[in-house]
Amino acid sequence: MKFEIEDFTAVKLVSVNFRSQLHGEEHVPAVDLGVAMDAPNSVLSYFDGALLSALYYSSAASSGQAAIEGVPQVLPNMRFPRLGLPLKWDDTGKGYELEIDYGLGPDESNIVLDLCTVGEFRLTPKEGGTVEIKLRVQCSGSPLTEKVCGKLASLIQQEVHIKLLAPVVAQDAQGDEPLPTSADEVSRELFKDRPQEDGGQSGGPANPLEAMERAHGAA
Q: Cβ(80)–Cβ(53) under 8 Å?
């Protein structure tokens, strides 16, 4: 699941639930934020590539209206207007960063919560091509200072602008070549042939035994 809000977008902070959460043997502050927003139905592709076409179609295209070359096809009409809503999307993402524009100008006034858990999605498709999305953002620990909690409490039922960014998966520094995992692979990596450093010796030791023999002068 890679749902994101990459640019500051208007949402409604419908609920702020403060609680205590156990980390090891210590209780730390935690909060559950309920967020609601309206978005173009293209946002459904964040959840599954087939979801948009499963829920929407174009009645104009179905009646024979030709598509314009180079213009993305719009799907404004609901396929199943009698479908029970909202739809529950069972997926959870961890490690998100939530940034809330607190409206005081400089970025330093914004609320930034890291290592958030995002889930509890509720999707309500609407005729015309809009989807209402409700979700829950959970955060705990050091970001929830007394000052931050006070700011969050003041924003309940208010429209705010937020970014919600998914964690970036680190790439292997070695490129596409996978790291060795088995004992044999690790041994081969450690004792594979090295470039010749003298005119008569072959490359590096072929195995740990040969490495010990060379180190101690054994024949």
A: no
